Amino acid sequence: MPISDQIKCTDFPCTDIRTESYLIPDIDIDPKTIRMIIISEVPPQDSKEYFYAPNNPFYLQTTLQAFNDAGLNLVTIEEILNLGIYITTAVKCGKTDYSISSKTIDNCSKILENEINLFPNVKIYMLNGDVAIKAMNYISKRQLNERVIPSGSTYKIRKNGYFYKGIRVFPSYILTGKNFLIEKSKRKMIAEDIKEAFNLING
Question: From residue 76, how far is each of 86, 107, 131, 187, 196 by CA, in Å?
Fold first, then answer.
């Protein structure tokens, strides 16, 4: 089932995004095989650097490094998918500035909600970055009338157990971009979160 055939933005109502960078995973997978969804922040401005692009894209390079830091020796996106792990972004268009408005995150969280609902056997949502955390909180407030992740610095709250409709939710840090390569403390925490999440879906 091609994911990009199942979900889409139809009217592009947001004003602080780059619609030319609009991306939804264009992969054909069986949703029943996915047990963990990693939700990053936004697509890259250049689609050639997206997770599922060919020729070792930059988003995939840092993601693979995060998995390798966690003790999983992976070299391709296919290996990640074969482990039952699907990667997407909370916002589907590239950003025009450093930050993204709450309105845009709320708008796109409706698409994300439809996307995650495609996967019936998911045990883990991993939220990599503040935009992903906010998007999941918008989904939770619509569905359950409460946030799933409380306010607070990620490093202070990340070790607590959070659940959305019985599915474990991990707040973590961004695993894409050049900052990943230089922020060693965050990189270590991302690896810890991936390792714990991977152990949970296999245990």
Answer: 13, 32, 26, 20, 21
